[in-house]
Amino acid sequence: MGKLKYIHLIFMTGTVGLIVFSLSRWRPSTNGIKPVWSQVPQSGRKTVLLWTRYFHNIHWPLPNRNDEKCKFSCRVTSNRKYLAHSDVVAFHWRDIDLNDVPKSRKPGQIWAIFSLEPPPQTPREILVSLKDHLNWTISYRRDSDVFVPYGRVIKRKQKKYVKLANFFENTTSVSWVVSNCKTTGGREDYVKELKKHISVDIFGECGDELCVGKSNAMFRNLCYNHLATKYRFYLSFENSICKDYATEKLYLAMDSGMIPVVFGGADYKNILPSDSYIDALKYSPASLAKHLVDISQDKLVYQKYLKWKENYEVQNRTVKSWICSLCEKLQAVKLTQTYKPNDFLKWWFDDAKCQTWKNGDVIAYHKTTKAKSDASLE
């Protein structure tokens, strides 16, 4: 385990005999129990076993001492010797090895599959093999058992004065940070047409520009804040057009002060304030370019798209909250019963209603080739 500054040992009796560490400075380990900080007493907590890695990394997205505390807590461990005593076994979809799944399962144990990627980027064969064993889903889908948004926009407790961007300072129009150059949603084809009518500066592997901080997720906000000093609009174009799929590129753009131009399958009108975004799929590339130019030339209209900040604020670090939501859900279920598998194949692939933009039309997506997929790609 990593270096410890202060250690308080709490010995628990029972068949397992676990030792739980309460630390003021703690580094994650692949062994033992990882505490999730809570405002409630630690007795009677459920145990969550992280069976797989997370994008080949031993570190899953979990809260630290600086994050908001969970209302309810769980013991969270990656030590497989606690399998028989775990209430939930969590699998990260892209890291599942079908030759390395638990061989035994205690009655009432919940198996949960975790995925923040859309259906075109998730291996179908994994779900086909495990569909009769899985109970819960943890994903960005709002109808998941555990909903994990990439971000959210929430109402402020009281109205806040927000200094709006100087209309005359942001003279360059459209920016886009992108590293996945061939996608199932067809965004690259849309932008190709858009560039015929308006200037679009492209950063990342698919463009000619470099953005400070883009190579490290910890400093990604530096990139967006830098872009906001020069650009009025940001292309928050998702790699897939699927139900509820809206990633951090939307929320980072909003938080930095740019107007996001969205391209995706989320129900934007129900998750974002009105007049806070522009939906590219409601326009042809040519008409979108004209619309952006018109906004850029009208100070009052431009600033109207930024006034939402007076009454709302952006929360970006919401992915880590998945464990808090899972622990809270566990408080309301009876783990003595056996949970029947759901029809995950239909729910995940068919009900997502994924689409693609092609030759000016948005049509149903049918998988023909395997798309490039990686946690770092946008």
TrEMBL record:
Subcellular location: Golgi apparatus, Golgi stack membrane
Pfam name, any one: Glyco_transf_10
EC code(s) of this entry: 2.4.1.-
PANTHER family from the UniProt entry: ALPHA-(1,3)-FUCOSYLTRANSFERASE C-RELATED
Spans traversing the lipid bilayer: 6-24
Family that this chain belongs to: Belongs to the glycosyltransferase 10 family.
Fucosyltransferase N-terminal domain: residues covered: 45-151
Domain called Fucosyltransferase C-terminal: residue spans: 171-340
Pathway: Protein modification; protein glycosylation
Protein name as it appears in the record: Fucosyltransferase
Metal-binding as UniProt keyword: no
InterPro entries documented for this protein: Glyco_tran_10_C, Glyco_tran_10_N, Glyco_trans_10, GT10-like_C_sf
Membrane-protein topology: Single-pass type II membrane protein
Keywords: Glycoprotein, Glycosyltransferase, Golgi apparatus, Membrane, Signal-anchor, Transferase, Transmembrane, Transmembrane helix
SUPFAM superfamilies membership: UDP-Glycosyltransferase/glycogen phosphorylase
Gene responsible for this protein: LOC106471331
